[in-house]
Amino acid sequence: GGGTDFRPGFEWLEEQGKRPGVCLYLTDMECSSYPGTEPSFSVIWVNWGNPPAEWHREPWGERIDMTDSE
Predict the structure, then answer these.
(1) What's the CA angle centered on 22, arms 21 and 25, to 5 degrees?
(2) Which pairing describes strands 62-66 and 22-27: parallel, antiparallel, or unpaired?
(3) Domain ranges (residues) in the chain
(4) pTM, full prediction
């Protein structure tokens, strides 16, 4: 597959005027597109599985790597 486009979730928050204290994004980090700019709120990428390859790494925010044993 082509990977997840992360932009629509952040666009929806913007369109709805939502400003969360923190955004938890549950993902496998197999992504194709991140938003071009960092949002004004904190973002935590909760990665389910192996740490992402270098080209899949998040451009901002914090990543927590989870595995089946956690």
Answers:
(1) 155
(2) unpaired
(3) 4-66
(4) 0.81
